[in-house]
Design brief:
alpha+beta; four-stranded mixed sheet; three-stranded mixed sheet; 19 helices; globular; binds protoporphyrin IX containing FE
């Protein structure tokens, strides 16, 4: 960790050790304090020793966040062992706005100080800060703009149909693994075009990178100092393999005469020029490709899995969505033509609500380079301030019954910029947000147009699958288990 919290950064103890008060009351108390003078230093944190905070955070981050929000309020500090590193979590939309709209030089992203750097590389848009970040971001944005994305629609529907053909009917399966295969196929094709067909080594290498990590290892990782270096061992080998395939492909492409006519993301990036007329180097291209491949598929796959996980436990919402899908298929004949890419209103509401109540990326971190007033606190330079996506999306001041899955809440009006933040915000908002939402809609529509999901008989997980940590995402603990039957 490059920037240690300064010695002056202290936290006070948890405000109350009384039994959990209702969430609204806790938040109300916190808001009541808003009129008090702005305080220097860090907000309060849990009383538990930092060792316990670290373990709990590694194993059950959403539990820790909910508990702290209930007991302390919308803003609190978690302390990590053994470094003493502190994270200040904020979840009031006003505070989230302050952090996301703070000048880039005051609140740059912390991703460059995390293990992400060793994997995605120093030139990755996620890792860079300042003008270099903006340069890469501008080069990357065009392929993700509206019109371009229509080109990916058929790819998404085809990849979904091809995978569904092998799904069992009438017996439980883990949906998460299948949606992951679909979104990996989609991102490979979007990024590499038809060449993706002969890219089995790439598929293998990426799957190797995403092997699940045992909870015990996760706990040990959390207690050790995160390495910023390129990983070694099996993970490092998978990364080497991935790099070799990518560099091979770059060399091959440079020799092809039709680069200018191609529309896949790699070809567009190879032709892109920055404001000085410079093209991206091979290392930059490698880093952005790995970034897109990794950031762009597991997140979307997990969100689709969560959508089905929620829908099977809310049969009335599922029925309403199926009605809408069937009505659209009736008007356009086969359900995969023009009528549907944007999805109906209820589909959009289901997706917004899934991303709200089960955000797959739970936090995003900025490291302050100068002091910044965030709500009631003047946070000193060096503070890691963290819009807590998970908590902001469930802020009881904004959402009635925030833990419940109610797509209807988004039917009348769409989500607000700073109280619905599954894709982060400001100048680092997710580049693939529109792509991801389009992909979610098309996968859900294609699957639910043909198959009816229901809950497996087993008692376990009946009420819902809890959040399990997988690398930096939160996935359904049982892989979104579901039973499919063919629809009449
Ligand atoms: C449901 C799916 C997805 C979710 C929930 C998600 C979430 C996020 C979040 C929370 C951030 C960090 C924003 C911040 O630091 O404020 C982010 C950044 C990013 N995402 Fe996504 N993402 C998804 C899909 C995608 C896809 C499909 C792609 C590309 C194909 C993508 C590419 C990126 C990139 C390149 C960044 C870095 C942006 C920057 O630092 O400027 N993501 N995403």
């Amino acid at each position: 960790m490059a920037t240690a919290p300064p010695a002056t950064a202290t936290t006070t103890d948890e405000r109350s050790s009384a039994p959990d008060a209702p969430a609204d009351a806790a938040v109300g108390a916190h808001l009541g304090a808003a009129s008090a003078a702005v305080r220097a230093g860090l907000p309060p944190g849990p009383r538990a020793p930092s060792f316990a905070q670290t373990l709990a955070w590694a194993l059950a981050p959403t539990w820790v966040m909910r508990r702290c929000a209930r007991r302390i309020g919308e803003t609190f500090t978690i302390t990590f062992w053994p470094s003493g590193m502190k994270l200040v979590l904020v979840s009031a939309p006003e505070d989230v706005k302050t952090v996301f709209t703070a000048p880039a030089e005051i609140a740059p992203s912390a991703a460059g100080n995390s293990p992400v750097r060793g994997v995605m590389g120093e030139s990755s848009v996620i890792v860079l800060t300042g003008p270099e970040h903006m340069r890469q971001r501008k080069l990357l944005l065009p392929p993700f703009h509206g019109e371009r994305m229509r080109e990916y629609e058929q790819t998404i529907v085809q990849a979904t149909r091809a995978d569904m053909a092998s799904w069992p009917r009438g017996e439980p399966m883990r949906l998460q693994e299948r949606t992951r295969a679909i979104t990996l196929e989609v991102i490979l094709r979007a990024v590499f075009g038809v060449e993706a067909e002969r890219m089995d080594p790439l598929r293998r290498a990426i799957s190797g990178l995403l092997e699940p990590v045992h909870p015990l290892r996760l706990a040990l990782l959390a207690l050790s100092r995160p390495s910023l270096e390129r990983p070694t061992g099996a993970f490092g080998e998978a990364l080497d393999e991935l790099d070799a395939v990518i560099y091979d492909e770059l060399a091959r492409r440079r020799e092809q005469p039709d680069l200018a006519e191609r529309t896949d993301i790699l070809s567009l990036l190879m032709q892109a020029r920055d404001e000085q007329g410079e093209a991206m180097t091979d290392v930059e291209l490698r880093d952005e490709l790995v970034t897109l491949l990794l950031a762009g598929h597991e997140t979307t796959a997990t969100s689709v899995a969560w959508a089905i996980e929620r829908l099977v436990r809310h049969p009335d919402k599922l029925a309403r969505l199926l009605d809408e899908i069937d009505a659209a298929a009736g008007t356009n004949g086969n359900g995969d033509g023009e009528a549907g890419a944007e999805g109906g209103r209820y589909m959009t509401a289901v997706i917004n609500e899934t991303l709200r109540v089960r955000p797959v990326v739970p936090i995003t971190v900025r490291i302050l380079q100068d002091e910044l007033q965030v709500g009631d606190y003047t946070l000193p330079a060096g503070t890691r301030v963290t819009p807590a996506i998970y908590l902001t999306n469930r802020n009881p001041r904004i959402y009635e019954a925030p833990a419940e899955f109610r797509p209807e809440r988004f039917l009348e009006s769409g989500p607000e910029t700073f109280s619905w933040i599954p894709f982060g915000g400001g100048i680092r908002r997710c580049i693939g947000a529109a792509f991801a939402q389009l992909e979610m809609k098309l996968i859900l529509r294609t699957v639910l147009g043909e198959l009816h999901p229901s809950l497996p008989r087993a008692r376990r997980w009946r009420r819902g699958e809890w959040n399990r940590r997988r690398a930096i995402t939160l996935v359904p603990a049982a892989g979104a288990r579901v039973v499919w039957t063919t629809r009449e």
